[in-house]
Amino acid sequence: LSPKLTIDVKELPFGKPAGFSGGVGDFNITSSVNNTNIKTNDAITLKAVISGTGNLRLISTPELTFPSDFEVFDPKVDNNIRLTTNGHTGNKTIEYLVIPRHAGTYKIPALTFSYFDLKSKAYKTLTTEEYTINVEKGEGHSEQVISNFTNKEDVKILGEDIRFINLNNVTLHPKGLFFFGSMAYWLFYLIPGLVFIIFCIVYRKQAAENANVIKMRTKKANKVATKRLKLAGTLLAEGKKEHFYDEVLKALWGYISDKLNIPVSTLTKDNIEDKLKERGVDDALIKVFLDTLNECEFARFAPAADNQAMDNVYSSALEVIGKMENIIRIK
What SS3 state is found at 303? Predict the structure, then answer.
């Protein structure tokens, strides 16, 4: 047995700055923009890089307010993080893509990033530089933009402003008789009835398919878990520790989710234990399953783990899923 280890987890002190991103560690931030002199409807990419050591994966994306005349897209986030003896080290790259729709001179404000510094034990706020963007009018089209009232759509002049008189034969209908008894009149009554009937048929079909999906998930739970464990075995042979434990965890959580028909998002170790007892699984096997889960979760964040420990986890996962499959199938 390994010696008992006590971990003292302290809360972050009060006085969090506005826009605190949840970062804890030692970080710095840089930014760049790909172009400051462009034309309307050309894209601009502003890149911000947060680098350092700490909980980089848990840092939320800093918010940046762009001018109202810019069309803003969701930022793209790329994590380049590795686990070292000092913790998670690397960088988080955030790319903001925007498109200016009108000519003019605009300012993109500085990006603010706040985090808790472990060395000084205090909150720190970092800012990037502010950018001035000069936007010139792009090449025109056959449609001339004359005004903008909503910042979303332009009012355009049509290519023609005079309509010619229609010289074709025109069919006239007596007033008050054109709708009653017409095809549109009868369709007005028939279409709602047909829509209701189709809705009932589709609803019943969907309900039957949902029932079949639940049944198929339960049947294929062992097959899916075995496939994931086979991939985990390949990762074990290649010595890819972090990916190996991730795959074993996916196999264990996914198997229980499919077998018990409970979404993974609502699964906890407590309700797993209760549900397995209801299905007739004995306490000893439940304990082995939960111990395997705990060992995987601990090993993912441990600085190092030998191949023997990975072999033990792999063997335990195979054994516990095999035994549980036999018990639940019999019950």
Answer: coil
- pLDDT averaged over 10-residue windows placed end to end, the chain, 331 residues: 82 86 91 93 93 90 90 92 86 93 92 91 92 85 40 46 64 62 77 90 77 60 78 83 83 81 80 82 84 80 69 83 74 51
Structural domains of the chain, with CATH: 20-136 (2.60.40.680), 219-330 (1.20.120)
Rounded distance between C-alpha atoms, residue 97 and residue 74, angstroms: 7
Determine the residue type at 295: E
Which long-range contacts (C-beta less than 8 Å, at least 24 apart) are formed by 60-66?
60/21, 60/22, 61/21, 61/94, 62/19, 62/21, 62/94, 62/111, 62/112, 62/113, 63/19, 64/96, 64/108, 64/109, 64/111, 65/109, 66/96, 66/98, 66/108
**Quick check: 33 and 47 in contact, CB under 8 A?**
yes
Tokens of 263: 């979404």
Angle 11-16-20 from CA coordinates, rounded to 5°: 105
Written as one string, the DSSP assignment of 224-277 is HHHHHHHHHHHHHHHT-HHHHHHHHHHHHHHHHHHHHT--GGG--HHHHHHHHH
The pTM for the full model equals 0.42
Q: What is the pLDDT of residue 218?
A: 64
DSSP character at residue 57: G
State how far the alpha carbon of 86 is from the alpha carbons of 25, 30, 240, 312, in Å: 10, 22, 20, 27
Element (H, E) at 290: helix 283-301
The residue written with tokens 């350092």 in the block is: 52
